[in-house]
Amino acid sequence: MQRSTVARNAIGPLLDQLIVQLECEGRATQRAYFNRIRTSLNTARHDIELATPILELTSTHAVGFRFSEESEPLIARIVEKAAELGMLLDEISEKRQ
């Protein structure tokens, strides 16, 4: 299975839940941010195209958003999954060099 498919399967459903939660909370800016990342993840076909959404997800806390008690566990899980995938991409990149 391609890594882009693995990434979508691992992170996509969590992102979808987060986007719905943010919409329910009326957090349009955060919703748009994660929706853009979701779109980028959906269109990724190669490892290099996965780098941007993975990097954005792993640096989510640096953006400075505040999350509700309901959203925080989703964010934590998404960041954890993104970090795992990021390490996998790093390993692949190192093997190619």
Could you explain the architecture of this structure?
With 97 residues, this protein is an all-alpha fold. The chain has one domain. The protein is 81% helix and 0% strand. The protein is built from 5 helices and no strands. It has helices spanning 3-24, 28-43, 47-58, 60-63, 72-96. The protein starts with a helix and ends with a helix. The mean pLDDT is 87.
What topology does this entry show?
Elements: H1 3-24, H2 28-43, H3 47-58, H4 60-63, H5 72-96
Fill in the keyword field for this structure.
mainly alpha, globular, single chain, 97 residues, 0% strand
Order of helices and strands: HHHHH
The number of helical runs is 5
Which secondary-structure class do the elements indicate? mainly alpha
Please state the CA-atom Rg, rounded to the nearest Å. Answer: 13 Å
Number of strands: 0
How far the N terminus sits from the C terminus, by CA atoms, comes to 23 Å
Rough outline? globular
Low-confidence stretches: none
Residue-averaged pLDDT, rounded?
Answer: 87
**Tally of separate domains:** 1
How does the major sheet shape up? none
Proportion of residues in helical segments:
over 70%
Question: How would you sum up this structure in a few lines?
Answer:
By secondary structure, the protein is an all-alpha fold. The protein has one domain (3-96). 81% of the residues lie in helices and 0% in strands.
